[in-house]
Design a protein that fits this description.
Length: about 70
C-alpha cells in the first residue's frame, strides 16, 4: 500500500513541475511578445511621426534589432 502512495506522490510532483514549467514558458513568451510590440511601436512612430520619437529611443531600438537579427 505504501508503494501506491509513493508513486502517487512522485506523479503529483511531476505534474506540479510540469505546471510550473508551463507557467515559466508562458511568462517568457509574454516578455518576448512585449519586447516585439515595444520595438514595433517605436519603429512605427519613427517611420510615421519622426518628430515625436527621441534619438535615444531610436538608438536603443536599433541596438536591440541589430542584436536580435
Amino acid at each position: 500500500m505504501d508503494q501506491i502512495w509513493v508513486m502517487f506522490d512522485v506523479l503529483l510532483k511531476i505534474a506540479l513541475y510540469l505546471f510550473l514549467l508551463a507557467l515559466l514558458c508562458d511568462f517568457i513568451w509574454l516578455l518576448i511578445r512585449g519586447l516585439i510590440f515595444t520595438l514595433s511601436s517605436i519603429w512605427y512612430k519613427s517611420f510615421w511621426e519622426p518628430e515625436e520619437v527621441s534619438f535615444r529611443e531610436l538608438g536603443i531600438a536599433s541596438k536591440v534589432l541589430r542584436w536580435w537579427g
